[in-house]
Write a structure and sequence with these properties.
By secondary structure, this protein is mainly beta. The protein is built from 1 helix and 11 strands, in the order H-E-E-E-E-E-E-E-E-E-E-E. It is globular, with a radius of gyration of 20 Å. Bound molecules: copper (II) ion (CU). The site of copper (II) ion has 5 residues, from strand 9.
C-alpha cells in the first residue's frame, strides 16, 4: 500500500466514524423523520412492520397509505386485548400530532400489517416499503427483518444491577 492510499483509507475510516450509528436507519420527508423501521420474522401469511414517526412541524400530519412489493396488500392496524384475546383492526390512517411522535412497537397497538406475504420474512433480510403522508408526501424506507432481542438474564445473575 502506498502512502497516498493509506491516507485515503484513514480518511474514509474517520468519516465513517463521524457518522452517528443510527444514520442509515433514519429517513426525512418534509418535517417528518422516520426512525428505525423494522419487521419481525414471519413464516405465516402475514407479517408486521414498525416505524417511529417524528413530526418536527407544528401542523399535524397523517400516514394515509403504505405499500411494499413484499406483500399484496399493506394495512395499518391497531391491536387491543378483548379479555384474553388479541384483536387487530384496520385503521384508515395514523395521525402524527404536531411536534409529536408515533412510536410503533411489537405488542403495543399500532403496527403496519403486511397482508399476503409473497414469501416468509426471514431474519436478516431487508425489503422496501413506501409510506405516504397526507401533508408531507411519500418516502421510501428499507425495512430490516430482525428477531426480538434475547430476554434479559434474571437479576440473580447480575447482582450489581439489583435494586436495594
Ligand atoms: Cu395487524
Amino acid at each position: 500500500m502506498n502512502p497516498a492510499s493509506g491516507l485515503m483509507v484513514a480518511l474514509v475510516l474517520a468519516l465513517a466514524a463521524a457518522l452517528p450509528a443510527a444514520a442509515a436507519d433514519t429517513y426525512k420527508i418534509g418535517a417528518l423523520v422516520i426512525e428505525k423501521p423494522f419487521a419481525r420474522p414471519s413464516m405465516a401469511r402475514n407479517g408486521a412492520a414498525y416505524v417511529t414517526i417524528v413530526n418536527t412541524a407544528t401542523q399535524p400530519d397523517r400516514l394515509i397509505r403504505v405499500l411494499s412489493p413484499r406483500s399484496g396488500k399493506v394495512e395499518m392496524h391497531t391491536m387491543s386485548m378483548d379479555g384474553d384475546i388479541m384483536r387487530m383492526r384496520e385503521v384508515p390512517g395514523i395521525d402524527v400530532p404536531g411536534n409529536g411522535r408515533v412510536e410503533m412497537k411489537p405488542g403495543d397497538g399500532l403496527h403496519i400489517m403486511l397482508m399476503g406475504l409473497n414469501g416468509p420474512l426471514n431474519d436478516g433480510e431487508s425489503f422496501p416499503m413506501t409510506l405516504q403522508f397526507e401533508r408531507s408526501g411519500k418516502v421510501d424506507v428499507v425495512v430490516p427483518v430482525e428477531k426480538p432481542a434475547p430476554a434479559r438474564k434474571p437479576a440473580a445473575q447480575t447482582p450489581a444491577a439489583k435494586k436495594p
